[in-house]
Amino acid sequence: MKKYWAPLAAALTATLGMGAAWPGAATAAEAPPPATRAAAATPLRLMPLGDSITWGVGSPSGNSYRGFLGNKLTAEGHTLDFVGSGRNGTMSDPDNEGHSGWRIDQIAGIADSVLARYRPNVVTLEIGTNDLNGNYQIPTAADRLHALIDQITRAVPDATVLVGTVIISTSGSEEANRPAFNAKLPGIVQAEQAAGKHVRLVDMSALTAADLSDSLHPNDSGFGKMADAFNAGIQAADAAGWIKPPDSTSGQVRSGIAGKCLGVSGGNSANGTAVEIRSCDGSAARTWSARSDGTLRALGKCLDAAGRGTANGTKIAIWDCNGGTNQQWQPYNGGYRNPVSGRCLDDPNASTADGTQLVLWDCNGGTNQQWTALPVS
Predict the structure, then answer these.
(1) Alpha helix (H) ranges present in the chain?
(2) Could you give the 3-state DSSP secondary structure of residue 349?
(3) Is the pTM of this model over 0.70?
């Protein structure tokens, strides 16, 4: 295998040669001293993004590298929140965006929505195994990864993206494709850095065949090595000042109609108070938070389709949070949709008049159904 890694080793050397201003690649050996890490421990909202390796296949606990990484980051002084639409493993915070069997293009298909919903300030990306193992459009696989990284940095421009090389396997089809694919990654990362993006390569070559649970997935020894490598990347990026505190998890929900926001009438927290269009002013009545239970909350109450209605024209108000399906809201097509009704949060007739009460209406993508997404807390 040494001959296959020669091009990657040379490319990694070139990337590392770019200097401290643009940290290029990380292995476990590169982490800054503990005192440096503790002094610069930025809060992390971290999205583990990838395939079944991220999900935790091969890990007896289901924790993947995430459990080991979380323990390290917490010990180093980081406040940590893993985020994603899935939950797997025995760890206390098992949120992640790992999708078993998925290729690069399939991750790209959901990236915009999950990044808008969770707003991570760090993304750990390990993807490509299923492309390579399945011989899926191999000549353009690295191009697809490059496009995915561009997509991530557009969606969360302040985030740091750590790109893991594809780990070793004992699959003949994957191993025929993996070295050439990995050898292209340093150039991709260099191009991203040259464009001013906080993208860093994470070298996973410490894993060997002894670190596998089957032909494709690590065992806990391998997951531990992956955690070491991602941790080194996070510490180097943090020491370089790349990692910014995560976006606030509460704020205004802005309408697609200029200058207008989602508001609670009169700032009144009583059950049944209308939710309406209002000029954006940053007040408590215009401040919302998106929760992991699918609710949108303001003034201690939940956004509610009145009377558990599902029909077009159902009025929107606030009510005590009760777990009802009429209080569930999902990011959809640039706005919010109530899944039980299949209808969207709508400003009737695209009104610009303060005090217009919102309603449920068939989703149509109009500006009156456009609302900025909040990160989930």
Answers:
(1) 2-16, 34-39, 52-55, 64-75, 104-118, 129-133, 141-155, 172-194, 220-239
(2) helix
(3) no
